[in-house]
Write a structure and sequence with these properties.
By secondary structure, the protein is an alpha+beta fold. The chain folds into 3 domains: about 160 residues, no CATH class; about 130 residues, no CATH class; about 170 residues, Protein Transport Mog1p, Chain A (3-Layer(aba) Sandwich), CATH 3.40.1000. It has 20 helices and 12 strands. The strands form 2 sheets. Strands 4, 5, 6, 7, 8, 9, 10, 11 and 12 form a 9-stranded antiparallel sheet that branches. Strand 4 and strand 5 form a beta hairpin. Helix 6 packs antiparallel against helix 7, helix 6 packs parallel to helix 15 and helix 12 runs antiparallel to helix 13.
């Protein structure tokens, strides 16, 4: 009778031993959790190291984006405040997170090929949102929509948009500064972005455009609008008003600098005084926002105060644990899809370019048909700022004719941060004001090609400018098309080389604009046969 239990127990032990050995070979629950948590962090850190480092460097070195280092911490704090509501709404993950992951991957590929850092920053944002959607679901992510969207305020503007906006704001700030000076009786005149005070001229450079106030003030106003528990129209007014406030106060600051320079000399416009005046004006703009909030609160009916900022938890519902969230199939599949990003990054970043053989501009002819030229060097500070690989700058003349200034900047590879600067942003820096700008047709190699025609003025001096972009075998006038062609040729031809070509000539007092235009068109036609040796198709 005692032998029976032994016969039953022994086979049971033998059957249990293989099962235990199989379970020992499977990854433990803790291992899967750590992989699901750390693998996305590692992938994003490696793939986006360069783009995040570039953005962080801007936060530390560029005063226009100095507020960026605070934005991620503010967003994290806002999300932390809503953590309980987010967890209560997280009933399941969402497979739509996979779409966000695919969109982020597409933005990454476009950003690398088109050499635009902003696409890489947006790519990282899309991937983070995709992981959150797949893990928490849309309802939870919508509860923290503002903190996530607020992160986009740290993304710097593309360089060509920044340059255009800065140039326009320089002219506006110069006009406002001169207006302030004239109101208080100080004689001042404006030539482009240069304020003439008689013996002293003040140049409103890029740093004085007001963007260093506009960007942080608009970001702060956006945050205040979110925290301002009032009706939607009041919050919109509060945010939009930050733009004219920053522009007007920057114009007032420039006028104040003019007053100080008038009484205390050039030193009042430099160093500590210049920085101190900027901080005083920024604090004043912040005070105006607070005063505006007080006024808006008193206008019309306000929202009914709510006892709680979140909906009460339903009875019988339990907030999911972090383990449950990280083990949801939608999230694990998103992590698996994210694992393909390093392979895509390797294919894109290691895709070598094949720039064509060309002659250096050192050999560019100084005799073109009847035109005789004299070349001269560009200042070092401009060479460092423009980041071209080769250039030519020369004045050409022919008998009984005003000169034509030629400037060509060649870029062997238009990678991130290295591309042609638009003359629309550079012209105002010399005190010139752009009057009109339109498009004309040039005849190059027997074909019609577009070129931008700009009429500029500085006091009594008037000049005509023609400029265009030669992108491989294309002549392009639109700066946005330049980026599209860079993307397309990077994918199909493994080339992103190109050049900016600019022609400038003075308009004589007894000369028509049409005559000056014909002179530039004639020079462009005479130069065209030799151009492809230095800017290849």
């Amino acid at each position: 009778m005692r032998s029976t239990p032994e016969l039953v127990t022994k086979p049971a032990r033998l059957l249990a031993e293989p099962v235990q050995s199989l379970s020992a070979t499977r990854p433990s629950r803790t291992s899967v959790l750590w992989i699901a948590l750390l693998l996305p962090v590692g992938i994003l850190s490696v793939v986006f190291y360069d783009s995040v480092a570039y953005m962080a460097d801007l936060w530390l070195t560029d005063e226009n984006y100095g507020h960026g280092m605070l934005v991620p911490w503010i967003s994290l704090y806002l999300i932390w405040q809503q953590r309980q509501q987010v967890m209560e709404l997280s009933t399941s993950g969402s497979w739509w997170g996979l779409i966000w992951i695919l969109a982020g991957t597409a933005f990454y590929i476009i950003g690398e090929l088109a050499t635009v850092y902003q696409f890489l920053h947006v790519s990282l944002w899309c991937l983070l949102v995709g992981l959150l959607v797949s893990a928490l679901g849309f309802r939870s992510v919508s509860a923290m929509a503002f903190p996530l969207a607020f992160l986009l305020t740290v993304v710097p503007l593309p360089q060509f948009l920044y340059q255009g906006l800065s140039g326009k704001l320089q002219l506006i700030s110069s006009a406002l500064g001169v207006g302030c000076l004239q109101i208080i009786g100080i004689t001042a005149f404006r030539d482009g972005n240069v304020i003439d005070l008689g013996p002293i001229q003040l140049q409103v450079v890029d740093a004085c455009s007001g963007l260093r106030y506009l960007f942080p003030l608009a970001t702060l106003a956006l945050l205040c609008s979110y925290l301002f528990r009032e009706r939607l129209w009041k919050r919109i007014v509060l945010f939009v008003s930050s733009i004219p406030i920053s522009i007007l106060l920057n114009g007032f600051r420039i006028g104040m600098i003019g007053v100080l320079v008038e009484h205390f000399g050039q030193g009042a416009a430099e160093g500590f005084y210049h920085m101190f005046e900027g901080w005083v004006l920024f604090m004043a703009s912040l005070g105006l926002l607070v005063a505006e909030m007080v006024i808006l609160r008193k206008i019309g009916p306000s929202l009914e105060p709510r006892n709680e900022n979140r909906a009460p938890q339903r009875q019988g519902t339990v907030s999911p644990s972090y383990e449950t969230i990280l083990l949801r199939p939608s999230y694990l599949y998103s992590v698996g899809l994210l694992c393909l990003l390093p392979f895509a990054a390797t294919q894109v970043t290691e895709r070598g370019e094949v720039p064509p053989v060309r002659q250096p501009f050192l050999d560019f002819p100084m005799q073109l048909q009847r035109w005789s030229g004299t070349s001269f060097p560009l200042e070092t500070r401009y060479v460092e700022a423009l980041k071209f690989d080769d250039y030519v700058l020369a004045d050409y003349k022919q008998p009984q004719s005003p000169p034509v200034n030629l400037y060509i900047a060649y870029y062997r590879s238009q990678r991130k941060g290295q591309s042609a600067h638009s003359p629309q942003s550079c012209i105002p820096g010399g005190g010139w004001e752009i009057g009109t700008i339109d498009t004309v047709q040039l005849k190059t190699s027997g074909d019609q090609a577009p070129a931008n025609r700009a009429l500029i003025q500085k006091g009594d001096q008037r000049q005509l400018v023609l400029y265009w972009f030669k992108q491989r075998d294309r002549v392009v006038a639109n700066e946005y098309l330049v980026k599209l062609y860079v993307l397309w040729d990077a994918m199909t031809r493994q080339r992103t080389d190109g050049a900016l070509i600019r022609l400038t000539t003075p308009i004589q007092q007894n000369e028509t604009d049409k005559a000056a235009e014909q002179r530039l068109i004639q020079f462009a036609q005479d130069m065209d046969p030799v151009l492809t040796r230095y800017v290849p198709d």
